[in-house]
Design a protein that fits this description.
The complex is a heterodimer of chains A (about 110) and B (about 110). Chain A contains no helices and 11 strands. In chain A, strands 2, 4, 5, 6, 9, 10 and 11 form a 7-stranded mixed beta sheet that branches. Chain A has a 4-stranded antiparallel beta sheet with strand order 1-3-8-7, with no helix packed on it. Chain B is globular. In chain B, the strands form 2 sheets. In chain B, strands 2, 4, 5, 9, 10 and 11 form a 6-stranded mixed beta sheet that branches. A 5-stranded antiparallel beta sheet of chain B has the order 1-3-8-7-6, with no helix packed on it. In chain B, about 0% of the residues lie in helices and about 55% in strands. Classes of the chains: A mainly beta (about 110), B mainly beta (about 110). At the A-B interface, strand 5 and strand 10 of A face strand 4, strand 5 and strand 10 of B.
């Protein structure tokens, strides 16, 4: 099976702009989670979608939002970008239920200037 | 919600030594505890996991132990090699909830 894919791989934006990141899960996986990775802060959970519904949400401001489509692909949007939003954004997919193994994509590196 | 603390944040060992990374979790309902390894510039990858009905699990040079009473679990790497150098993350959750990660441990193995 193909792994989790993310596009784009790199982005440069300026403060105040908005950005949309995309994630395609492993075939058959219906859950997609998003994480923000910054040095020293590890993997901070943003949100998780299953069957087009947000099932879990982390402690991030409302500028961070997401959605999931009927084919399980997911997008994450960040509005009114701030310098502190510069990070590696990782998505991960898994089946839903007892099998909790989560597989990560390669990430999108976002730089906000 | 779940909170995971991980220690130490950095760990340096000599090749052939053992390395131990420890994590504590807050939600007593958590029953799944995976460990991920992230090499420089790569995505995190699962290396081993344990469920709460098991106290210890081994896979070649790596092992994980779980103490549900104390709400902590540990990763043990024996006979470390330079290729073990990476950032290691522990995580915890129960079915249907978010997988919450610790802040990571940077392991450096020198030859």
């Amino acid at each position: 099976k193909a792994g989790v894919t993310q596009t784009p791989r790199y982005l440069i934006k300026t403060r105040g702009q908005q950005v949309t990141l995309s994630c395609s899960p492993i075939s058959g996986h219906r859950s997609v989670s998003w994480y923000q990775q910054t040095p020293g802060q590890g993997l901070q959970f943003l949100f998780e979608y299953f069957s087009e519904t947000q099932r879990n949400k982390g402690n991030f401001p409302g500028r961070f939002s997401g959605r999931q489509f009927s084919n399980s692909r997911s997008e994450m949007n960040v509005s009114t970008l701030e310098l502190g939003d510069s990070a590696l954004y990782l998505c991960a997919s898994r089946t839903w239920g007892d099998q909790e193994t989560q597989y990560f994509g390669p990430g999108t590196r976002l730089l906000v200037l | 919600g779940e909170n995971v603390e991980q220690h130490p944040s950095t760990l340096s060992v000599q090749e052939g030594d053992s390395a131990v990374i420890k994590c504590t979790y807050s939600d007593s309902a958590s029953n799944y505890f995976p460990w991920y390894k992230q090499e420089l510039g790569k995505r995190p990858q699962l290396i081993i996991d344990i469920r709460s009905n098991v106290g210890e699990k081994k896979d070649q040079r790596i092992a994980v132990t779980l103490n549900k009473t104390a709400k902590h679990f540990s990763l043990h790497i024996t006979e470390t090699q330079p290729e073990d150098s990476a950032v290691y993350f522990c995580a915890a959750n129960q079915a249907g909830t978010a997988l919450i990660f610790g802040k990571g441990t940077t392991l450096s193995v020198s030859s």
